[in-house]
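Thread amino acids onto this structure.
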């Protein structure tokens, strides 16, 4: 599918994906409720989500949660314009790159299908660094033929695309992945604070963990930098981590699965939010745990606090 691409939601992740699209020579019409973001990242600014949907056959969404997605689709995008659904038409493909409720996603997909359009749910993984490099992983639910039509667009910022099944399957896979991410980050943060208080060399401790059964994404990719005070840029905030873990518990409840391991990350990221870290990158959960453990910081001098 060629032509102009529309992108709604130009924040931490959306903005990075737009930069990849613009850098590949694509014409992108962008909208965000925060004025000026589109021009900053090289997209042509639109005045509303409806304007984007009306002008583009391929529309990408990168929004905080299902409530915001439903507002933008339905016509209350915060800018006074009509919504994406009002402009849905045969042949149009809308790709939701957000982390959202699979139940809400399926309802939106049905609404677009009634107008001849296709709504794909495409959860993303890899964080800000992968978005910058174009190496994101995508988990996609929905019509396989529509996915193939927009694949050249998605390939611009992703390295691996996994068709996961019917509508909602992509967001289901994303919710499950993000829960494991939350468990690993929260538990590793606690372990690193304990290691610091025990007097261990944290670099050596990480080497031990990464050569042993405790290895996980956080020990491999987050904490080697966190122990130097580099908390990385971009990525989910503690508030968004709480949202994603809650999405998991809702999903598990609907499936009749006992979410017995959800209490840990809910407590950890809830603690971080309560201590003022809600809007900071979720790596700072280690500082929240450190705060209530005697004021522990993993780094010594010159690091972020």
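Threaded sequence (305 positions):
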């Amino acid at each position: 599918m060629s032509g102009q691409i529309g992108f709604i939601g130009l924040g931490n992740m959306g903005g990075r994906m737009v930069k990849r699209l613009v850098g590949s020579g694509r014409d992108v019409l962008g909208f965000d409720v925060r004025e000026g973001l589109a021009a900053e990242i090289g997209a042509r600014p639109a005045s509303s989500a409806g304007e984007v949907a009306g002008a583009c056959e391929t529309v990408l969404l990168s929004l905080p949660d299902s409530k915001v997605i439903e507002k933008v689709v339905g016509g209350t995008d915060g800018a006074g314009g009509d919504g994406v659904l009002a402009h849905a038409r045969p042949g149009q493909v809308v790709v939701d790159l957000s982390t959202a409720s699979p139940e809400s996603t399926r309802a939106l997909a049905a609404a677009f299908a009634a107008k001849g359009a296709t709504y794909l749910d495409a959860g993303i993984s890899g964080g800000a660094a992968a978005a910058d490099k174009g190496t994101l992983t995508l988990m996609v639910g929905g019509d396989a033929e529509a996915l193939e039509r927009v694949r050249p667009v998605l390939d611009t910022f992703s390295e691996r695309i996994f068709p996961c099944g019917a509508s909602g399957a992509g967001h289901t896979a994303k919710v499950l992945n993000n829960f494991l991410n939350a468990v690993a980050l929260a538990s590793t943060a606690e372990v690193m604070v304990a290691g610091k208080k025990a007097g261990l060399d944290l670099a050596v401790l990480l080497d031990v963990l990464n050569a042993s059964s405790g290895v996980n994404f956080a020990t491999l990719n987050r904490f080697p930098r966190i122990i130097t005070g580099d908390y990385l840029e971009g990525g989910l905030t503690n508030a968004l981590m709480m949202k994603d873990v809650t999405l998991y518990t809702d999903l598990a409840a609907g499936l009749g699965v006992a979410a017995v391991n959800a209490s840990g990350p809910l407590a950890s990221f809830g603690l971080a939010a309560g201590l003022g870290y809600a809007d900071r990158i979720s790596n700072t959960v280690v500082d929240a745990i450190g705060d209530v453990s005697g004021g522990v910081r993993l780094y010594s001098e010159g690091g972020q606090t």
